[in-house]
Amino acid sequence: MKIYHSIAQFKALTTGVATAGTFDGLHAGHQAIIQRLIDVAKEQGGESILLTFDPHPRKLIHPEFDLALLTTMEERAVLLDEMGLDHLIIQAFDKTFSQQSSLAFVRNQLVSQMGVKHLVIGYDHRFGRNREGGFDHLVEYGPVYGFDVEEIPVLEIDQMHVSSTTIRQAVKSGDMQAATKGLTRPYQVSGQVIQGHQVGRKLGFATANMGHIHPDKLMPAIGVYAVTIDVDGDQQLPAIANHGVRPTFGGKSEPVLEVHVFDCDKDLYGHKMVVHFNQRIRDEKAFESPSDLSDQIALDIQAAKKIHNLQ
Quick check: pTM over 0.70? Predict the structure, then answer.
């Protein structure tokens, strides 16, 4: 997959099959759009293009809105590459770009700059200044500028309306199983292992502290989770994680993510780590003594191993 950091870097194709949007989460609904995009490109002998925006348009349009991302741009790029996309265009979403009319966007960006002959969009896709453009506009513009357009309907899984909003709500509440259904994979947080206070080691359970997490990344609800981890892209390892403020030791102003990997004596400091959240085990709470906390961690590990089918 080729990556471009503006539409201007892209050379128009003879037969471009494109979609556009933020695609935060790359959930099941997004995957349906992208798979259709790839299939049509193959049928027409063209190439698939996904145009996305950074930062998220809501950051500019509604700066007061506290938007946390399900996927960072780096995470999205990895997932899109795995799906088989040909071209990913990451366009800076600034005031100038946002003020384009829907007609100018279609004529100047999609048709002239990208060479789009077929457009695949989601059921609620809006574009152009003040979100004025929609599916009806594209149907109107298509014959004029020589492209076809199709709309992918809303997707539901187990009566759950699949959207980035519903999945954010699931992650915020710690319902990782619902998030997994919507995403078709466990929710993940990427970062790097940093030096901690070695509190876990003193309790008999060494932990890796996660740092360098993207500041806009949505973190799961405070609590203890069964997780799997990737270290430097290697195979997934079963583990347990605590996302919290360490109330037994006086608490911290900002939550931290700590991971205990089962039967692992490897020094993880400085390594890149991806944490995949499988299931929430319990709330974080204060214990009367470190000994009581240690006993509870042992029980948590047993619960996590059962979830991982290790018992």
Answer: yes
